[in-house]
Each structure stands twice: as C-alpha cells, then as structure tokens.
Amino acid sequence: MEQVPRTDDIDAGYCLRFLREVRDVAFATTDEAGLPAVRIIDVMMVEGGRLYFVAARGKAFYADVMRTRFVAIVGQSPDFRTCRLRGAVEHPDDEVEQHRLVDRIFELNPSMQELYPGDSRYVLEAFYLQDAQGEYFDLSGTPIVRVPFALGSAREAVAGFVITDRCVGCGTCAEACPEQCIATGSPYEIAQVHCLRCGRCAEVCPHDAIERRS
After folding, report:
1. 144, 210, 138: which is closest to 180 by C-alpha?
2. pTM for the full predicted model
3. What CATH topology corresponds to 160-213?
C-alpha cells in the first residue's frame, strides 16, 4: 500500500491505484426487487483512467450489473483510509474485445487461472467504470482528510455542510465542531477537506444558518 499522501497529491489516479491495491472491495448494486445487494469483488485492473472488474454470466451480480449498468464501490486500507466510487458501468459487447480484456486481466491476476482454468475463463465478462464520482476519506491522522475526485467526464460531487449568510458570528458551531474545522469570518466557514459531515454544527446553530448541500 502506498504511503499516506499529501492532500495535494490525492487525485483520481491515486485513488484508482489505491482501490487496486486494496483489491477486495465492496460493490453495491440493486437486485430485481430493487433491494440493496453488496458483494466483495476484486478490482482486477486499472488502466487508462478506468477501473475494471469481471463477473461470471451465471452469477446474480452479473445480472444486477447488466440490468442497472450502475455500481457503487468502497475499499478501505488497514489504516482506515477509504476510497469510494460510483458511476455508470461500461460493458464491451464485442466478443473479441471481451476475450482480450479477460486475457489481460488473467495476465495481471495469475491466481485466477486456478479458479477458471483453460477456456473456462471466458464465462467471465469484463466491465469498467470510466465516468464516475468518488471521494478519498482518511481517518488515519488528525485532522481527518477528505478529497472528492472524478473519472472521465463526470464532475466532482459537491456535498457537505455550508454556513449561509444567515450566520451572525456567534461561534456556537465552531465550539461544537469535533474536528475544529470551522474558521471565524463573515460568515464563518467550514474547511470541507477536514469536515466529518457529522452535522453537529447544523444541530447546535441557534440561527439555522447551516445547510447540508448534496
């Protein structure tokens, strides 16, 4: 696992490498009844700004992905660094391209040959995320760090609590913040890169000046 990076070094490329090193990550989909389903799936390859995974055609996970063409994934390192990513899933329909991708994935992941020897590998099909929103979240130090990122043409997600112009500068929110990431000003301002997004500031504000944006 790469060492903890500086905040300025955290970008989409770093986060893709992070997820590849974590490898076994949680993939969330919805099933036929519209209920949530989560599986641990391997990140098989990261190339060209894309994250690749595979699924066997007989598995429910394959059916879920083919039906919705959307996944949300999250991986965490032993030292409590997390990357999450969600977006539309691409699936090459061409059989020749599918075989090429599966062969490439088996080159990078030789242990797969024990599970799917010979031509049985081609029951697997390759998928990738190319346009997706994500976030790096680091609880390994103080203060915490969170950095949004995006793949391809997707835009970085804008979320979190913001202090509006209804702020009167009383300081109640700054005193209550567990991360001490609210700076004085007019209005006060939340340092989003260090915010837990716990909502404590919004709960204690006597003027309802803090709103959640998502």
Report:
1. 144
2. 0.90
3. Alpha-Beta Plaits (3.30.70)
Lookup result for tokens 């700004």? 49
Amino acid letter for position 2? E
Domain range list for the chain = 7-151, 160-213
80's CB contacts (< 8 A; 6+ apart) are: 138, 139, 140
Residues 6+ apart with CB under 8 A from 174: 180, 182, 183, 184, 188
The DSSP code for 171 is: -
The string of pLDDT tens digits covering residues 94-139 is 999 999 999 999 999 999 999 999 999 999 999 999 999 999 999 9
Q: Is 33 left (phi over 0), alpha (psi -120 to 50) or beta?
A: alpha
Cα first-last separation, the chain: 31
Superfamily for domain range 7-151: Electron Transport, Fmn-binding Protein; Chain A (2.30.110.10)
